[in-house]
Amino acid sequence: MTINPASISTANVTVNGGPFIYTGSPITPDVTVTWNGTQLTKDTDYTLAYENHTNVGTATVTVTGAGNYTGTASTTFTIGKATPQPTTPTGLTAVYGSTLKDISLPNGWAWDAPDTSVGDVGEKRFAAIYTQDNSGNYNTVQQNLTVKVTPVSYKLTLKGEADSPIQVTLNEAVVEPANIGTTVTYGYNITNEAPANWQTERVFSGLTANTTYYFFAKAEATTNHAKTISQGVAITTPKNPNTR
Description:
Distance between the termini: 141 Å
Strand order of the largest sheet: 3-9-7-6
Largest sheet: 4 strands, mixed
Number of strands: 24
Order of helices and strands: EEEEEEEEEEEEEEEEEEEEEEEE
Radius of gyration: 39 Å
């Protein structure tokens, strides 16, 4: 008597072992095939084939009858995104007045709100996002990163002129940003190097005629600004008219 092969098309195909997460390699989970209450045997009663089973998304497993079975049956399973474990950036620094976009991050990292001010001097934490790549196979990772905010220098502008062969009067130094409570002092040297002695007065007398001096302004540190010394301003006293 001839027995016709049975169609496997009505078989119950079950994928075991989930949930499945992207690994970068093909995922071939264990599959159970049951037909009319009987569990069939792989390679004897059927063969398996997987489609789209490497990347995140819906994968298909197809059962094709073998031996006493013909036809096909299929089911699907889902591959979820992997969560990367990136190295947390360290040693991030910024100066007062900066925004987060002024701070470079390693590849894959980006600030959540790059236009955010870093704020006052001190250690701060700001939200950043890590993206492994653009494949769509990974979750993004959000993490707060530590930024050390350091003081910024003032911008100092100094001018002045000689009043006589032995005296120079400086204009009040322009300090930017202004009105932040810093103390400004003044000094001079015979070389273009910051002096050791400073004074609050802007008048320097007892100088030598026909001599070039270098004058400086110094702004003391405040909470968010570092002590700053201006560039030297060269001023030459005139000759003494009574000296030939």
